[in-house]
Amino acid sequence: MNPKNPPIKAVPTNIITGFLGVGKTTAIVNLMKNKPNNERWAILVNLNSG
Fold first, then answer.
1. How far apart are the first and last CA of the chain?
2. Do 7 and 1 contact (CB within 8 A), yes or no?
3. Residue 33 CA from chain centroid, whole number
4. Second label for 50, Cα 20 to 30 Å away, from 17, 18, 27, 38?
5. How far is Cα 46 from Cα 39, in angstroms, rounded to an integer?
6. Residue 7's CB: how many other CB atoms inside 10 A?
7. Which residues contact 18 (CB under 8 A, 6 or more apart)?
8. Residue 28: φ, ψ to 5°
9. What is the DSSP string of 2-50?
10. pLDDT tens for each residue of 14-46
11. For residue 44, what are the CA distances in angstroms to 3, 7, 11, 15, 47?
12. pLDDT for 4-14, tens place per residue?
């Protein structure tokens, strides 16, 4: 193993998709309210879809 190129670690990922008005934002808000304190989350938003 080359010390300059450490192995890539898998990152648990969830993708939330759906039609307009199905509750995606509500689901994300509820998930954030119950996020464990020991976890670090990032939320990416695509505003140029469609």
1. 43
2. yes
3. 14
4. 27
5. 23
6. 6
7. 24
8. -65, -45
9. -TTSPPPPP---------TTSSHHHHHHHHHHT--TT--------TT--
10. 999 999 899 999 999 999 999 999 999 999 988
11. 31, 25, 15, 10, 10
12. 888 889 999 99
pTM for the whole structure:
0.67
Helix or strand or coil: residue 1?
A: coil
Residue 28: which of 48, 37, 47, 18 has the closest Cα? 18
2 or 49: which carries more pLDDT confidence? Answer: 2
The domain locations on the chain are 18-50
